[in-house]
Design brief:
By secondary structure, the protein is mainly α. The chain is built from eleven helices and two strands.
Length: about 290
């Protein structure tokens, strides 16, 4: 079998882009589960809301892509915090299944509302002027926007990891998860911290939605198409593992891209095959802690 280098590199680029979305989304899921012990099945719907928020900002208020990268995560993150305060806080201390069922119901409601109003077809969202065109690398043509998505996603993922694992705020978050009573004794408002953490995880999903909008268009079911794969990424990396989600997200995107080139028939199932193998060998995930 002769290898077409340009086609192979093109599939690797597609895999890296998909991996960027997998990493951002699974990172948000890992933050929410690791800090709050909530399996957030509404994550895909909130990712879709981020894309729609960018679309509304542009078409209703004339606010372009660069401001949408800031405003959409803040707006959707605020919605997530409202959801946590009004719904999820009542499930504190209960089995994970209750949170999963509640967030799954919320996801169906959100997707149903958007689909009822906008249908199933995609809405175009233009690439910003500064990121149009591409760079000829000699061995391949690299679209500037796709390169931007990969680099920006990696930077955001690493900054989030640093915030949670290497700062005093992150230490408070982890302590509040392990022993909330002790943390309250130091005068820290634990419920507010939990709400802000959920907002951070949701904001990461919304940010991924904004980045995805110019590539995949804005569709009500764009999150439903992605969320099952992202959950597989989280399971492989280790539930609640921040760095595991980042590494696994990008790695599985690349593996998926390679599979599309060498064996396209398996490209839609390779992630789930890997998930099964990892669960058989190490049920806690590649970087998860055994409980």
């Amino acid at each position: 079998m002769s290898i077409n280098i340009q086609a192979l590199l093109a599939q690797l680029l597609v895999g890296l882009i998909n991996g960027s979305f997998y990493a951002l989304l699974s990172l948000g899921l890992a933050v929410i589960f690791g800090m709050l012990n909530i399996i957030n099945f509404a994550h895909g719907a909130l990712y879709m809301m981020g894309a729609f928020c960018a679309y509304f900002l542009l078409n209703l208020f004339g606010i372009g892509y660069w401001w949408a990268l800031i405003l959409a995560p803040l707006i959707v993150g605020a919605f997530g915090m409202l959801m946590e305060r009004t719904l999820l806080q009542w499930l504190s201390g209960l089995d994970h299944l209750y949170g999963l069922l509640l967030t799954f119901g919320v996801a169906l409601i959100i997707q149903g509302l958007f689909q009822n109003y906008f249908g199933s077809s995609g809405l175009p969202y233009a690439i910003p002027e500064e990121l149009r065109g591409g760079i000829n690398l000699g061995f391949m043509f690299l679209p500037i926007y796709r390169g931007w998505v990969v680099v920006f996603s990696l930077v955001v993922c690493l900054l989030t990891w640093y915030l949670i694992e290497r700062t005093q705020l992150g230490a408070y978050l982890r302590a509040a998860t392990e022993n909330p009573t002790l943390v309250r004794a130091f005068g820290i408002n634990v419920p507010r911290m939990i709400t802000l953490t959920y907002g951070l995880g949701v904001g990461l999903a919304a940010l991924a939605g904004v980045l995805s909008a110019p590539i995949n268009q804005v569709r009500p079911l764009m999150g439903a198409d992605l969320i099952i794969v992202v959950f597989a990424v989280v399971v492989i990396g280790g539930m609640g593992s921040i760095m595991g989600s980042i590494i696994t997200g990008f790695a599985l995107g690349v593996i998926e891209g390679l599979t599309k080139y060498f064996y396209p028939e398996a490209s839609n199932t390779v992630v789930f095959v890997l998930m099964v193998l990892v669960l058989l060998v190490k049920p806690s995930g590649l970087t998860g802690r055994t409980t």
